[in-house]
Amino acid sequence: MLPLLSPAHLDRDFDYLVPPELDEIAQPGVRVRVRFAGRLVDGYLLQRLSSTEHTGKMVKLERVVSPERVLTPEILRLATTVAARYAGTRADVLRLAIPPRHARTEASGSATTPKKPAARVEETRTEDADSSTADTEASADIEAGSVVAGGPAGGTAFTGVEAGFGGGTAGATADVAESDSATAESAVDVDVSAWERYLHGGAFVAALRQGKGPRAAWQAMPGEDWAARLAELAATVVAAGRGVVLMVPDQRDLDRLLAECVRLVGDSAVGLSAGLGPAARYRRWLSVLRGQARIVVGTRAAVFAPVRDLGLIAIWDDGDDTYAEPRAPYPHAREVAMLRAHETGAAFVAAGFARTAEIQAVVETGWAHDLLAERAPLRAVMPRISAPGDSDFALERDALARAVRIPGVAFTAARAAIKENAAVLVQVPRRGYVPSLACAKCRTPARCRHCNGPLALPHSSNGEAASPHCKWCGITEAAFRCQACGARALRAMVIGAARTAEELGRAFPGVPIRTSGGGDMLDTVGPGAQVVVATVGAEPLVRGGYGVALLLDGWALLGRADLRAAEDTLRRWMGAAAMVRPRGQVIVMAEPSLPTVQALVRWDPVNHAAAELEARAEVGFPPAVRMAAVDGTTESIAELLEAAQLPDQVEILGPVPLPPTARKPFSGADEPAEVERMLLRAPRSAGTPLSRALTAAQGVRSSHRSDAPLRVQIDPVDIG
């Protein structure tokens, strides 16, 4: 049995006696209730054994919660691997992987024989695809068997992605006869010829059709219908009798991708997200567990979906911060996806318009391969991208092009697009009216006198002037005085989407102005002359594409004190530029000589990711190294480091203040005044020993009943 207990030193298997009345339904993978230290706790039955090495008194299994075998052997192995990778416990990982039981939903369903509707893929290329797959590399088999009470947890040492990035193929294990009959009944034609536009794209699809496990980093071209392309890959894998997991960052992308999958394979595709509600989510999860659904489209939790005979796992836009799990042990969906693909031999695709340094790292090791378009077809679909003042001639025409927020060339392009009855997209980095204020004299950020929070200027619906207010406590600051120089005047540091829309409404009278962002996000807008002001990531789609896109306030995105500022900025810019039609125009308001701006102008995310990876390697930041962030009080951090037997290669950095955007490792009214962060840096070869040492140290702390707040994160998104 594996009791779901929080203390790290109790992350082990325990032997219990199965009474005769529960013998039939007490099968591996079911939910159980067991008595532990005098109280009833939830758990999972891992394995039935005929004997035990435990010499003491055996405690009986209290009851089987449900006969549904919700914990599959593959998910247990994955949970064990993820817990070892992120210095956590299997109980915490399984809470993320398996949704809470909904008894009525479980009782209403029936474990029927799974239907396997598949798509008949149109043959478009017959060349050998062996070059797209690497040789199979052996990995350790993580056992799920029980051990005696007090013994070590079952399973072997972590042998995941960093153990060599071994690729491989996987033989199909589905019932061929059953799959063939279902395929013949519900097959549809899928045209995969669009993949021929990408170098080795046809070979990649052919490898999927043959049941192999190729792994690729796919950079979509501007204007590409990425949802349709991923759905075609999924249909190809389902046609071979295997399952698929597709991950997207948000509900809007989920709806778009799920619609494409349903169009190709029907009810064999389901969507999983937290917004469904307990009953609907559990019903769909059960359909996946029982083999009735072959394609899962979901957000970060879908990476643990119990898809039978997994053949493909794909992630779209892996740089989005929503893929980072905010609950212990804080895994990243991209890393879990790569671990699962490595363990199962399934194909893997990291897709997006831009590329992260983490994906570039696995490409450079050979674990995955590039799936790129050649320059000629790329230029045919690219919009014209430029930055104001990018040449001496441009500066002669407009000397203030780099100084003003929206230069004359941007207004000219927008007017031309509106004249052609095309939509104009205006991307701004912040929502609100004037979300950030500073002293007009010394430029010191304006702060509240009561709580030291940032001051902002709210939008007034009646057009009257409003006083600045605090974004933290909400108190109005009617008589501001700068704490640094004593001046009373304020200036805007950043202009928000609401103020931008107001200014553009005056600049383009009679033209519809639409806003998208925050709680008022638009999925699509109709074609025609209009100006759409959207915050980053909230840009709506328009049929036929935008005529012009204006990317404002580039300095606000690039100037953030964040390790991933340049990478995230390019990702945001490319996502907006990809919505512009081929002969359209994109104008980015940023310094033209910056490498990130040049990467956008050339549409070159691969070299930008390579340069970003090289820069991080020089200064020793992930993914070039393995880094652990330990957050807590001074006493709790010192207690953990004293108990940890760290490898010799580990370098201790800090303590440093907790980043302002990072969540504190505790909640409640008894928060300590000071929270620190200690960084532990190790080469990738020492990543597994570092995680193992931190796991053991947390076990020592929990066995000593230490209740001081502490959090351990491996390779956090926000390092500080």
Describe the structure in your own words.
The strands form eight sheets. A seven-stranded parallel beta sheet has the order 9-10-8-11-12-7-13, sandwiched between helices. The protein has four domains: 71 residues, GIY-YIG endonuclease (3-Layer(aba) Sandwich), CATH 3.40.1440; 187 residues, Rossmann fold, CATH 3.40.50.300; 236 residues, no CATH class; 91 residues, Alpha-Beta Plaits, CATH 3.30.70. About 11% of the residues have low confidence. The relative contact order is 0.10. Helix 1 packs across helix 2, helix 6 packs across helix 7 and helix 10 crosses helix 18. The chain is an alpha/beta fold. Helix 9 links the parallel strand 11 and strand 12. The longest helix has 17 residues.
Topology:
Elements lengths: L1 E2 L26 E7 L2 E6 L18 E7 L3 H13 L4 H8 L5 H6 L11 E2 L54 H11 L2 E2 L10 H9 L5 E5 L6 H14 L3 E5 L3 H15 L3 E4 L5 H12 L5 E4 L11 E7 L16 H12 L2 E6 L4 H9 L3 E3 L3 H7 L2 E3 L5 H6 L10 H12 L3 E6 L7 E4 L15 E2 L12 E2 L19 E5 L2 H11 L5 E4 L7 E2 L4 E6 L5 E2 L3 E6 L2 H5 L6 H13 L2 E9 L6 H8 L2 H15 L5 E8 L1 H10 L7 E7 L18 E8 L3 H17 L6 E5 L6
Parallel strand pairs: 5-6, 7-12, 7-13, 8-10, 8-11, 9-10, 11-12, 14-25, 15-22, 15-24, 20-22, 21-23, 24-25
Antiparallel strand pairs: 1-3, 2-3, 2-4, 16-19, 17-18, 26-28, 26-29, 27-28
